Amino acid sequence: xxxxxxxxxxxxxxxxxxxxxxxxxxxxxxxxxxxxxxxxxxxxxxxxxxxxxxxxxxxxxxxxxxxxxxxxxxxxxxxxxxxxxxxxxxxxxxxxxxxxxxxxxxxxxxxxxxxxxxxxxxxxxxxxxxxxxxxxxxxxxxxxxxxxxxxxxxxxxxxxxxxxxxxxxxxxxxxxxxxx
Length: 180
What we know:
The chain has 180 residues and is an alpha+beta fold. Helix content is 57%, strand content 23%. A four-stranded antiparallel sheet has the order 1-2-4-3. Helix 1 packs across helix 2 (12-57). It is rod-shaped and about 135 Å long.
């Protein structure tokens, strides 16, 4: 130890440089150790930022898709059948008679089944019988399927009228989606 003290008295500048070098080496080691933790935190923040940026970039697409969904819901709500509005409900079918050149021989709105309290919609069943040519009856079916009212065909029967004529008879049991 005496040699070091003797050297420090004779060469104070060199001894100061050695001490500063040792302190700098310690600081460098501490910075390198801390830097690993900062790099990991930077990677996590960069990944989170990239994810947020992708969400922000697709915002306009998401908004337009949301508008499409809202439009579909509005269209569905606007075309629901109101069970108590029998005249409008039957007119929906009778209005197709002239366009399809068919004749509705029977059209009955049946009793609606009991709906659970959490159900959003009600099913309103109908029995429908129509007569006409094959092309006319297929046009009636097409208009029923592609019309604005949401419906499901439960039973379907197509047969030739008695007497061998070209007239066919169509019997349908269908459900329309209605307001609860």
